[in-house]
Amino acid sequence: MAKRPLYINGRFLQKPVTGTERFAREIVWAMDELLAEQTDHPDVTIISPPGTPAPEGLKITGFEICGARQGHAWEQWDLYCAARDGILLSLTNSGSVLHPRQMVVIHDGAPYRMPGDFSFAYRTFHRILGCLLAWRSRVATVSEFSRGDLAAVLGISAEAIPVIYNGHEHILRCAPDEGIIEKLELKERPYFLFVGSPVPRKNLDMAIRAFHALEREDAAFVIVGALNAKVFGKRAQMQAQNVILPGRLTDEEIVALYRHAQALVFPSLYEGFGIPPLEAMVQGCPVLASDIPPMREVCGDSALYFDSRDPAQCARHMQKFLDNPSAREDLIRKGAARYPAFSWKTSAGKILDELMDMG
After folding, report:
1. Which pTM does this prediction carry?
2. Which of 45, 85, 108, 339 is the most buried (most CB within 10 A)?
């Protein structure tokens, strides 16, 4: 590792834990563990905006508050000023375009590929920011699919973009909270599960239509995530019989839901990686996934795939799991063999190797 100080953009510590924030937290803590094992390591400090709660459980990584701004203004100036003597690591799609020695992880090309998911102001800003970061920084991403996609939209070489996969260990640390099964009245009821932020590219309206095509009054479809009526649409809301919307849940509650579900349904039109299918495999939950390249990359032969535009095909796969327990058991075995390949510790080690070359 280079002897320059290593600074970590800590803006992610202010945000709720969704996919990118999960990635940042797990990578930072895994890096801290790896560096603590070394006798000669650089000074490592998380730098965050005012009001950020101090992280707990870190061994050698420091924590500092800097500046007076918030948001992108803080990131572009205050962070730059505080970190300009060292190497900067930004893990959640944005960073300081002024910093000359920065690695920034851009998780996918969604602002370019799925513009309808974002406001005009958001997608315009992030498209410009992404191009500037590609010009000024070392860009990394989370899958081979995203590497090719970002190379195309940012105009850089795919070979120059390291792939840093998501990992699985976080979901093993969670003891299941079985109370959620009783609370949602699922103890004697088969159910399918969706976990994620219900933005349009997650394609939930199609999955709900597929579920209703089963015409199974005894089954349920549980959708975990922040609720947004605009995402589901009026038709889906009106047809929401046997669709359970508990909102955000704890990791422990989600683990219990994984363990008892017929399958995780992951119908996305576009993803950079997709953590829920990996989590499901860890917890012995079969995966029904849309047939898009990043899902093939993560799940391999451990999932049953369907055309993301074809609710009838998705419904047939749901019915197969309800009628044929052996189909579930085969995917559970395959998932158990596949998930260990995705490790936070391995990914943290790869980032440290890449940072070493930036010194």
Report:
1. 0.92
2. 108
